[in-house]
Amino acid sequence: MNKKKMIRLTALVGVATATGVVAVANQAHAATTTTTETTNQTTNASVESTQAAVDAAQSAFDTAQTSVDNAQANVTSASNNVTSASATLSSAIANKEVATSENIASATSAVSSQAIVVASASQAVSEQAGVVSAAASVQAGAQAEATSASASLSSASANVASATSALSAAEAALTSDQSTAANNLSAAESAASSASAAVSSDQAAVDNAQAAVASAQAIVDAVAEVQSSDVINMSAAYITALKNYLANPSSANAAALQEVAKGADYVKELQQKFKSDASLDVVVDPSDPTVQEALSVYAVNLINHLRNQYGLTTAFGASANANVAALDFVKKYYDDKDWNIFGTTGSDGQGHNKNGLNAYAVQLGTSIAEDAGSGLTTWVNGKATMATTTLHNLLYAVYSDIVTMLFDDGGTNNWSHAQSIFEDGTILGTDGFNNVYLGVAFDKYGYAHYELYNATEGNRLGNNAYSLDVQTAAQTLLTNAQATLASAKASLQRMTTNLMVAKAAVVAQDQLAALENSSASDSAAVTAARTQLESAKTSYQTALATYQQKEAALEKANDELANVQASLEAAQATLATAKAKLAELEETVANLTNADQLLAAAQAAYEQAVANLTVATGNLEAAQVDLAKAEAQLALAEEAVEQAEARAEIATQVDQQLNGSNANDRQSAGQDATSLKTNGRSLTATVATASAANPKRGADQGRLPQTGADNQEASAMALVGLGMMGMATGLYGCKKKKLTK
Fold first, then answer.
1. Integer distance in angstroms from the first to the last C-alpha of the chain?
2. Fewest Cβ atoms nearer than 10 Å: which of 16, 153, 220, 427?
């Protein structure tokens, strides 16, 4: 039962006159005690009784609710049935309208035609099933043969493995006794081979050293003579004209210089004065450090001789570092970039690589100037290749280039080459050439490059300087070459001795042969094992070929079976479609033929569905009425429980109040009545004590004497009267319970 119901109790208290009548004190107390005990028992029994009624009412309500739910479901089902029956009836009416004799005949004809199609499709399925059966038989045979071939292949493979193992064991037995001798032989042969290679290497070194000595000797024999004889002398008039031009490069001074220089004709005359010596006709590499040293010393001596004639006291120098830098620059900015400075005719080339010069100057941190000459491709003296060039060609190229720079350098060059040779502190107007070192290099086209570097302690281009005394330099070259040759010969002698010792150590061969003669049985076992292995390999190959053949046949049979099965499935699908269409046509014929019966049945079914819906709707309404009644009964039962609980609670409070009264109240008969003071005047309360246990209301009533006003004027007797009055008159003002679901 809902415990949250609000209950309002109003006790009716009668207010008598000042001389009102009350029960005698001792009799009133006894009556009150008996009444409260009886009331407690009665109210508790009432609570239990009304709660049982609530439970019964709740059960009845739940049953009624279930009946309503079921009835609602029946109504929904009946409504759906009416909708379905209505659709069926509409279809039957439409069918009746088209059920003419012509349509029935046409539909019957269509059934006959479709029956022929079904029979044909059924025959096709039967035939294809036979094909599938035959293909399955072939596939099963191929599978059996493939399985057998696989087993044979596995057996052959096992035989090969067994024969291989047997051969390995036989070979191990044969080689176990030979291993020591074979190892000794191998070590000795390896030592002999190494010694022989060392001898060959040292012999090549000796040959190279001897060639170097020969080259150095040629330089010693010829360079000094060439250097002393191949000098370029300038006339006083040339020197004066050149100085005038360099001081003031006017067109008049240029013409005067050109007139004094005599041009190309004088160049040819000077070129013919070059000292030609047969000892210089030795093939050399222009990039060889020894050759490069000779060329740079030769060029610097020619230039310094000219500078002396000009009146300059500062000289150019030559060094290994400057030559290395020249080779690196030419490779990086001419060879690697395919930069052809003169081209094929001398006038169609790309000229100086100025960007390369600037980049290399930044890299070295110094000033660089470059002069270039036709070098080995001198058109005056004929062309020489880099592969077959001689010391004579190289020296002549240097000599010819310097001559050309001095006396055939007008035109577009504006005497810039001569200016680079004779300026002091600057070259071509660029400062920073106070310590010039010359590097000489030839590019891959055969053109000569003369790189002028300003050497400093920072760039170290002047380090490893060459002696400009050609005789001393040439002799030093020869001495160094001879020392290299002597060292190479000494090394060759040592390696030759080592080779003889190594060859003498190759004695294990005899031991190996003896051991092989003593292990004939092992060799025979090895031979037999090899024969067995070869036989097993042959059998394996045969089994492998058979297996591959059977596998191919099986794959083909599988493909064929899959194809015919697919055809069977297609035929079955066609048959199923034909049957479905036949069934549809037959149903059409049946519908048209039985149109009257179908319409009558549909009409009857529709009417029955409507009737069922009517019954279900009536049942639902009746169930809803029962549910409303059960709901009302439940509300009344719950309200009765709340009233019984309220009465029980009041009885309990009264009983507790009575049990707490002091002894004086029970002993004094004159104080059992309570005088209540209100607004300065005494009122005597008459308390109703109606109860089933005390029906004698007023039998022993008497007048309650005035006792004055004190703190106990509102006595427990008043509370008893209040409680009993409430029970006697019922629960006045009890809030009606509203049932909510």
1. 14
2. 16
